[in-house]
Amino acid sequence: MEVCADPLQALQRLKEARFDVLISDYRMPRLDGVTLLARARELDPRVVRMMLSAAADFGSVLAAVNRAGVFRYIPKPWSEPRLLADLHAALAFDPCATPSADELERRRLEALEPGITQVEWGPNGEVLMPGWNSPGSPDATPSPVRRKLGRIR
Fold first, then answer.
1. Which whole-number Å values give the CA distances from 49 to 24, 131, 132, 138, 150, in the listed order?
2. Is residue 1 part of a domain?
3. Is 110 part of any domain?
4. Hey, is 50 helix, strand or coil?
5. CA 50, CA 90: separation in Å to the nearest integer?
6. Which parts of the chain sit beneath pLDDT 50?
7. Are residues 48 and 95 in the same domain?
């Protein structure tokens, strides 16, 4: 693992060595993350590209997916278990393989709403929703919207 504080230094390292995964922030001095990841894709299409960002700007997410072929868009702040799971998935991913229809749809949904496909499942196959499934959590108190949604479930 290597860390480069300068995106131009990261590009230079990509010319010198092979990396399996490249994680970049969206906003950096001298070069934005989309441009860095797009250039990394040109240098080595086998490197799996991931982007971190605090920006919820749909345009930046779309640019990351379309221009740089980003595997995962990770919103800040991230949770360490989720980041590690994404990293494991990136290491198992083959960016040169043709994506399945399901993977293309997952990428489309993630571009529209980051995190939407990251679902936690309960032991009986139910979808776990933070705050809804844990008594005593701040979200456990039913709001009018939650009461209405609860009747729909």
1. 8, 32, 33, 36, 39
2. no
3. yes
4. strand
5. 8
6. 133, 137-153
7. yes
